[in-house]
Amino acid sequence: MSGATVTPLHVAVLMGGWSAEREVSLTSGRGVAAALESLGHRVTAIDMDRDVAFRLREAAPDVVFNALHGTPGEDGSVQGMLDLMGLRYTHSGLATSVIAIDKQLTKNELVPHGIRMPGGVIVESESLYAADPLPRPYVLKPLNEGSSVGVAIVTEDGNYGSPIGRDTKGPWQQFPTLLAEPYIKGRELTVSVLGGPDGDQALGITELRPVNGWYDYDAKYTDGLTTHVCPAEGIPQDVAASMLAMSVKAHAVLGCRGVSRADFRWDDTLGEAGLYLLEVNTQPGMTPLSLVPEQARHLGMSYAELVQRIVEEAL
């Protein structure tokens, strides 16, 4: 780690679980465990099941690296358990996790602080079979899922029907309520924020260019389906500065710890006024295709150094 001395610790790496993002979490967790071992830490890898509290008590680690994605590892449930057990852990705490996993609660928290986010309405999925909640095009997404799980873009010429067909496959069949937001055309951008003793640091801006369609779950986690442009190109200085500032501010307002990632859409025909923060991810991926390690690497920070920084903030 650039010559720095690392104090060996016993780190339990929580991964897997039973969310829709299980496989991504396992990949993140294995990478984190290998990095920690390379630094001289003792690692206990735990594929989370219903006996996780017993297994953690038995392991008695110095710190827990939370490599879980989705519920219950990202929504405050695991954080509350770890708090009750008196265990230190990486990434955001209970209150922050509860708010950030819920897209509407995130809006309620960030918009009053001057952070521009798309307007939206919460709809009962059954109502979609009668009428559109917003003028098309619009986006439907679950309130508390990550990695674009369950997201649908409803367009004038889409194949969902008008109104949406009751038997048409989509998130309305999986979730009783959904968040409907206006579709923002333009570019998909993301900024990682890393906490540390000298303050929160925005690592950079990456543009995501899916080969086909849009940046959905498959595009995020399948090699070759998305081009990452890091650092992003052709972004005016005022837009870039605004994006970085919004990301750091969102990290602070929500009370994020360790690392977070803010996702944006930018309508480049409108300049800075076309920039919208979509959501803040408090448990961003740590896989070979993940954005946080990529941005850290561009700054000269290795994967192992990034993992160590996250552990150090937890302590």
Record field, number of beta strands:
12
Report the β-strand fraction as a percent range.
15-25%
The shape, in one word, is globular
* Helical residues, percent: 25-40%
Uncertain ranges: 214-221
Strand order of the largest sheet: 10-9-8-11-12
- Give the SSE string: EHEHEHHHEEEEEEHEHEEHH
Largest sheet: 5 strands, antiparallel
Which structural class fits the helix and strand makeup?
Answer: alpha+beta
Q: Rg to the nearest angstrom?
A: 20 Å
**How many helical stretches?**
9
Query: What is the terminal separation in angstroms?
Result: 18 Å
Q: Average pLDDT across residues?
A: 92
Descriptors for this entry?
four-stranded antiparallel β-sheet; 12 strands; 315 residues; 22% strand; alpha+beta
